[in-house]
Amino acid sequence: MFKNQNIRKLKGEKIMEALSAISPAAWASIIALLIVVVISCINEDLNVGILSIAFALIVGSIFAPEILKSINLELAAKKLPLLKAYNGKTIMGSFPVDLFMILAGVTFLFGIAQTNGTMEKLTAYAVRMAKGNNALIPVIVYVVTTVLTTIGPGNIAATALLAPVMMAIATRVGMSAFLMTLLVVGASNGAAFSPFAPTGIISNGIIAKMAEELGIASTSLGGLAWKIHFNSMLAQGIVNIGGFLIFGGWAWIAAQKGKTVNIDELAPKPAAFDRNQMLTIGAVALLILMVVLPGLPIFKGVFPKWFLSMAINVGSVAFILSGFLLLFSAGDSKAAIKAMPWGVMMMVCGVTVLIDVMDKSGGLNALVKMIGSISGPTTVNFWLGLIPGAISAYSSSSGVVMPMFLPMVPGLIEEIGIPAADRTQAALAMISSIDVGSHLVDTSPLSTLGALCIASAGENEDKGKLFKTLLIWGLSMAVVSGIICYILFGLLGF
Hints:
This protein is an all-alpha fold. The chain folds into two domains: 1-93 and 343-365, no CATH class; 94-342 and 366-491, no CATH class. It is 74% helix and 0% strand. It has 25 helices and no strands.
């Protein structure tokens, strides 16, 4: 009893110590970020990326002398050249151009695939694999959604494409829209961290900036990206497939024994892929091969330097392949540009600029110390699942929450005192916790994915009841994400 009291007292002291050490510049950057988070929860129509840049410029300019002094103290400790000035140009220099261009390249390529009908036909052909066997439909839905999200469109695009089709199927076979939402959103979010998908690109871009601090070699980033992708699929699969089976799915499957439907009525056979669509499929296949193959040990030293330079990241490859598709008139560039998620891209990059000001002013370190004061090497995964999950229920998972929390990982590792030998695994666990926590709540109707599923639900569904059910489920996922991240990434070490 006394031991527990002493521990609580010590943690309280650490929190007060962290709060008292926060400088005015750090407080200003923290308050700016909190305002951005609150506004993103209240007003979804306002792009908080633009607001974040504005706050970054205001805070950075007002507290420029204090921030410059802090930067130079750090540079002097590392025996590096000192910074002469900290101004608007310096602040905007932190805009993640590389990340923006990677997102632009990949989303443009898949914008072509969406607007020329390639993705729609791939979906139709995939659904027909059930061949009228009702009991196979949940498996087909989950696998199709996972594969489609993994190859590049991302969770939002995949859900927007699949939700109308899958909800129509749910109505036809007597499955509730709630159960179908768990399958579609669970699979799309699970696969969202593919290195080819926008969410995965955002996560990996932030990780790449932290790699040196984390002691992760650049050659290991590809393998780390796939491991995070696996961890996301594992956590999302356990929760959403488990929820599907427990809350009616198992009973529905049992009731389908011997039942079949006419596959041509359920999913009419689409026309054969035309020339443009075949070229697009070839481009997507090349994208995957050009990015994956050079990183495999078996192909080490096989490819010439010019090829490796060209295939250095997924964005550059996507731009090249998109260029060829346009030259062969396989896509409409204007339609593809309209299909790109410009809002999310701007949100991510804008918040990143504000986070950089927070980092340089000491605000990020202050937040790290506060989270570190209530955490241990294992329990930190609980908090990194819970807190991002709670915020993400009302805010953008990829645009606000991930850029806010992922940069904290190096500081948390230092604050908690993770041994050098365990730091890579600890970083993987923390990153996975943040990524899973920020997305497990997206079945909520307050999120884009949940809203898409409600909008696509059949006329036979009580949408008011569906809204309440998904809201309860989605909000409860903040706590569930904390628990599942603690077990999988803290205790079991995935």
